[in-house]
């Protein structure tokens, strides 16, 4: 029974990781591609972690919860790297345009270019 | 109390992380983790110039639960968008005006936005007054902004008292 549940979560996790990767491959531009890895992959890894918790908790060694830490760190780091990539892209593209101009105009205006 | 335990919540999470890292509840580890949880905030307190004041710590729990639910929904939404080739996506950049006065709260909001349906935070303005968001598929810009402000920013304002 527990094995069934474990494999269910493994399959679901694997499926979402796959969908995330497909998104990464076929969405048309960089900003849209970011959506794949930040979202679908979160649930993908989440499913696999739940499966891991179930499996190792059912063994003799007792409750296994350190997967929670993996989930926590993933939730913290995935958006940060996505933000970093997006930001880099914006600043590269606006390198000679609005971003620089706004910055020279003073920090009060702030912000970046808008498509 | 204030002197020996400057950041109770930080201590508690350190302790939790220590026990989770060891994946154990052995008495020795509980003791060692507890000591570290007491000592680390004491030694690092001076590196936190403006640490966020939590006004309603219990509200964090409901926020996290809501976030977990929204992440699940977000995954399904994005998966559907990715797998439907016929559907025309309407990506857009949205500028979200910020009402949060605390850096830490802004970080939490930024992460939340990246993890929830169809939006990734892209850039924070230099004056920290607005956030640039990229959305994968937008019907109504105003509605998206209103949803984020109502669902995530308001609770964060309550939690961090800013």
From TrEMBL, chain A:
Pfam families: PhaG_MnhG_YufB. GO terms for molecular function: sodium:proton antiporter activity. InterPro entries: PhaG_MnhG_YufB. The keyword Transmembrane applies. The keyword DNA damage does not apply. Keywords: Membrane, Transmembrane, Transmembrane helix. The chain crosses the membrane at residues 6-28, 40-56, 68-86. NCBIfam families: CPA3_mnhG_phaG, PRK12674.1-5. This is Multicomponent K+:H+ antiporter subunit G. It comes from Desulfoprunum benzoelyticum. The lineage of its organism: Bacteria, Pseudomonadati, Thermodesulfobacteriota, Desulfobulbia, Desulfobulbales.
TrEMBL record, chain B:
This is Multicomponent K+:H+ antiporter subunit E. One of its GO terms (cellular component) is plasma membrane. InterPro entries: Cation_antiport_E (IPR002758). It holds the Pfam family MNHE. It comes from the Bacteria. It is a multi-pass membrane protein. Signal peptide: none annotated. Keywords: Cell membrane, Membrane, Transmembrane, Transmembrane helix. Belongs to the CPA3 antiporters (TC 2.A.63) subunit E family. PANTHER family: NA(+)/H(+) ANTIPORTER SUBUNIT E1, NA(+)_H(+) ANTIPORTER SUBUNIT E1. It is found in: Cell membrane. The chain crosses the membrane at residues 63-83. GO terms for molecular function: monoatomic cation transmembrane transporter activity.
């Amino acid at each position: 029974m527990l094995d069934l549940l474990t494999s269910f979560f493994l399959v679901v996790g694997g499926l979402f990781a796959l969908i995330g990767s497909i998104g990464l491959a076929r969405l048309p531009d960089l900003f849209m591609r970011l959506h794949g890895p930040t979202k679908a992959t979160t649930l993908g890894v989440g499913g696999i972690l739940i499966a891991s918790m179930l499996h190792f908790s059912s063994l003799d060694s007792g409750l296994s919860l350190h997967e929670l830490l993996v989930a926590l760190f993933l939730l913290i780091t995935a958006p940060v790297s996505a933000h970093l990539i997006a930001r880099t892209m914006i600043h590269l593209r606006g390198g000679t345009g609005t971003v620089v101009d706004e910055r020279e105009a003073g920090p009060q205006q702030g912000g970046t270019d808008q498509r | 109390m204030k002197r020996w335990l400057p950041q109770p919540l930080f201590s508690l999470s350190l302790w939790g992380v220590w026990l989770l890292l060891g994946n154990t509840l052995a008495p020795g580890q509980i003791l060692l983790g507890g000591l570290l949880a007491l000592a680390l905030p004491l030694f690092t307190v001076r590196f936190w110039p403006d640490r966020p004041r939590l006004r309603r710590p219990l509200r964090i729990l409901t926020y996290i639960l809501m976030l977990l639910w929204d992440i699940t929904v977000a995954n399904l939404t994005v998966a559907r968008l990715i797998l439907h080739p016929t559907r025309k996506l309407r990506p857009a950049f949205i500028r979200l005006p910020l009402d949060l006065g605390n850096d830490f709260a802004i970080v939490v909001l930024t992460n939340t936005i990246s993890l929830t349906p169809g939006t990734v935070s892209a850039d924070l303005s230099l004056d920290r007054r607005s956030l640039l968001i990229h959305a994968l598929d937008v019907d109504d810009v105003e509605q998206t902004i209103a949803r984020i402000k109502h669902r995530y920013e308001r609770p964060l304002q309550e939690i961090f008292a800013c």
